Every structure is written in structure tokens, then in C-alpha cells.
Amino acid sequence: MDVLDLSRWQFGITTVYHFLFVPLTIGLSIIVAGLQTAWYRTGKPKYLRLTKFWGKLFLINFAMGVVTGIVQEFQFGMNWSEYSRFVGDIFGAPLAMEGLIAFFLESTFLGLWIFGWDKLPKKVHLATIWLAAIGTNISAYFILAANSWMQHPVGYRINEATGRAELTDIGAVLTNSTALVTFPHVIFGAFITAGAFIIGVSAWFLWRRREVDLFRTSAKLAMIVTLVASVGVMLSGHWQGQIMTEQQPMKMAAAEALWEDETSAGFSIFAVGDVQNGRNHINLQIPYGLSFLATNTFDGKVEGINDIQARYEQVYGPGDYRPSIGLSYWTFRLMIGFGAISGLLALAALWFTRKNRLPGSPWFYRLAIAGVLLPLLANTMGWIFTEMGRQPWTVFGLMSTASAVSPGVDVTEVAITLIGFTLVYAALAIVEVRLLLKSIRQGPETEGGETATGTEPGTAPALSY
Predict the structure, then answer these.
(1) Under 8 Å CB-to-CB from 150, ≥6 apart: which residues?
(2) Which of 108, 128, 172, 187 satisfies CB 3.0 to 4.6 Å to 113 for a cystine?
(3) What are the counts of helices (DSSP H) followed by strands (DSSP E) for the chain?
(4) What's the N-to-C CA distance of the chain in angstroms?
(5) Residues 99-124: pLDDT tens digits?
(6) What three-state secondary structure class fits 191?
(7) What pLDDT score does 454 carry?
(8) Which of 244, 400, 390, 387 is nearest to 323 (CA)?
């Protein structure tokens, strides 16, 4: 491997790792704020206990997300200095706004929430968690606006003297159509992630018949949130597909292994292709599905890989402008599949727990616990598709990935940091899981403020670490 390959691997590993924590943090922040609101309005102790229990898990995850996010940004100067030089005037603006506005809002009020339980009036204390949650979501928007500029550059000009992209319209960057469709998709995905996490943890308690009334409440809430968010992901994803077809037709064509322009195109379920010769040997399809996804009509035209490649060569010069077709194709399907299964599991869980029932069979609880991983996998596949499907561009149409890498680093330096980051992140993963499992095993505080650490008899094995 050369410096470019190792730099891409490093950025890919740190980005995917970081994004394991982000959606859970976003989703839990709103749910915790909602639970505290329920306690404020009703005065019921169970909502206070749930707020503190899920709030503790939210804080553990938040801390890990902050640490990994900082490391990710360091890489722009380490391995991608040419990229930073080219887009720093533009890319730095939303990142600075995220740090100065959103992150300080988020961290300041989160600190007040942590230490203000017995010191602030109830209404003021409630406001702190809502402001922290709002800051978390605003932070996500600024980051997505920066990433969306890489997918669809707007509000800039190229300075011929310096060879740099310069910001001309910050409003255009922040209202980029790509950001406007990506943000709701990511937020709905975050609610699925948080919902599945709460369902899984609640299922463990219900399996052991610990705090049944308490965790029946949280499980039911999380099932509804997950189901509604699944519908939101589907609708926002449909909208996002149309924008992607318009702005990055090669990415959509690669996602479907569509080689030639086609009207009334079908949505591919399973394909076996010949990338070298630009055709498919096998392609099972849902008739008209791709045209509907891409154009919102059943007879719409969708451009194919071969035709787009020929057009890009005329526009950008000789070169291969195709991303990894197999990777784009399968990550797109796995993203949809894992997300859809999460929604279906939430729907099934609502049915099996209707009228306050508790299923007796252990398979229900095992599926609910395993279901925690599904949204994490869907999020991971989605981001791999988003970033890999843009290749060979770092900034679509303006800067290739090969020209963005730092010229002053060598293979050894990148390899050392790649190994170092990977080992540190593995250690952090162990710490994160141990802290979460320990907090879950301790359970929620009693009404008197003590942590219930007793293990009531049940049929499920205890969580261990």
C-alpha cells in the first residue's frame, strides 16, 4: 500500500468508529429530555428514575464520541493537508460554527444538567437538558453541512492565483440541498439507533423480571420511537435518492450496478456483474423500483455507469470515474436491509407486548438484545456507501482523493499512526462496553436515590464484562 491507501484506511476506520457513538448520542439526548419532561409534568417517580438511568448511559456515550471526534479532525492536517489547503476557507466555516456555537452550547448546558439536579429549579434544570439536546442536533447539522459541501460544492469560487476554493456565500453552504436531505435522514437514523438500544437493554431487564413496570414503560416508548423513525428514514431516504441521482448520478448507478441508461429501471435485489466489461450476468429486480426511487416516477430515466463514465471523461479528462461498484452496491443494500429489519423488529415487539404482555419465550428477548447492533450496522454501511460512492473525488468535481493527500508524509509515518489509532480505539471500545455493561447491571436508582445492584432471580444470564 502507498500513502494514499493507508491514509484512506486510517480516515475510514476513525470515521466509522466515531459514527458508532454519534447517532446514539443524538437519539438518546432527545429521549432523555423527553423523559425528564414527563417527570416534570406528571411528577411520577418512574420517569425521574428512567431519566437518570438512560442519562448516565447517554453521558458515557457522549464522552466517547467527543474524544473520537477530536482525533478525526486532527487527520485533516496530518494526512490530508492538500485537501485542507484547498478547502480550508470553506470547510473551516461550518466546523468553526459547530465548535463555537453548537459544542459550547451542548457542553455548557450538559454540565449544568449533570451538576444541577439539587441546585437548580426544576424548570431551569429541565431547560438545560433540552438546550444540550438541541446543541447536539445543531452540531450534527454543521458537520453534515461541511460533508455535504464535499458531495455538492456550492457558495464558492476558485482563486486562480492561489489555487484554493474560497467561500462566497455561507448561506448557500448551510442551505445546501444535500445537507437539507441528509440531516433528517441522519436524525431519523439516530432515533432508530437510540430506540433499538433502549429496547435491547429494557428487554434484558424484562427477561430477568427486574423493574418490570419501569422497563416496560421505556421499552414501549422506544418501540414507538423506532417504528416512527423507521418510516422517517424511508421517506427521507427516498428524497435523498432523488437528490443523489441529480447531483451524483455515478453514485446512484453504482449503488444499483446499472451499466447503461435505462427508463422504467428496476431496483436490483441481487446482481452478479462483470466490472471489466461493464455488464451484469445476473440481476434480479423489482420492476420500476429504481426509476421511482431516483425520479419519483415509474418511467423515469436513470443514467448508467458506462454512459456517465464517457460523459465524465469529456468533462474532466481521461480517467476512471467509477467508484468500487461491488462495495457501493452491497453497502447500499445492507444499509437498507439492516434499517428495515430494525423497524420490523420494533413493530413485532409492539405486537408481542400489547396490553402489557411479557413474552415467555427467551427468543424474543434474545432478538431484542441482538437488535441493538442492527442500526449501528445500518449507519456504518450508509456512511461507507456515502463516502466510497463519491470516489474518486474528495470534493466532487473539484478535487480528486489522490491529490488531497499530504505530500510530506511517508508510508511508515501513516502506518505507525494507523496502528496506534486502531489499538487506542480498541482499548476505548473495551472501556466503553465495560462502563455501559456495569451501569446497566447496576440498574436504575431507587426512589430514595440509591443504586439497585441486587440480582433478582430470572431465566436470563447476567451481563458480564
Answers:
(1) 87, 91, 390, 394, 395, 396
(2) 128
(3) 15, 8
(4) 37
(5) 887 778 888 899 999 999 989 999 99
(6) helix
(7) 41
(8) 390
Cell of 323: 467508484
Cis preceding-peptide flag for 392 (omega within 30 of 0) = yes
The amino acid that residue 74 corresponds to is F
In the chain, the amino acid numbered 178 is: T
Closest among 142, 240, 153 to 188, alpha carbons compared:
240
* Residue 47 one-letter amino acid: Y
Task: Decide: residue 462, CB within 10 A, 0-12 exposed, 13-18 middle, 19+ buried.
Answer: exposed
Max Cα-Cα span within the chain: 74
| CA proximity to 199, closest of 427, 334, 374 | 374
Residue pair 21/193 in contact (Cβ under 8 Å)? The answer is no
Q: Which among 252, 392, 372, 384 has a CA at the least distance from the CA of 312?
A: 392
Mean pLDDT score across all residues of the chain: 88
Q: What is the DSSP string of 51-99?
A: HHHHHHHHHHHHHHHHHHHHHHHHHHHHT-HHHHHHHHHHHHHHHHHII
| Contacts with 421 (C-beta within 8 Å, 6 or more apart), sequence order | 10, 13, 14, 71
Any idea which residue has 464520541 for its cell? 65
Find the mean pLDDT for residues 70-91: 84
Task: Identify which of 59, 321, 369 has the alpha carbon closest to the alpha carbon of residue 200.
Answer: 369
Of 403, 391, 460, which is closest to residue 83 (Cα–Cα)?
403
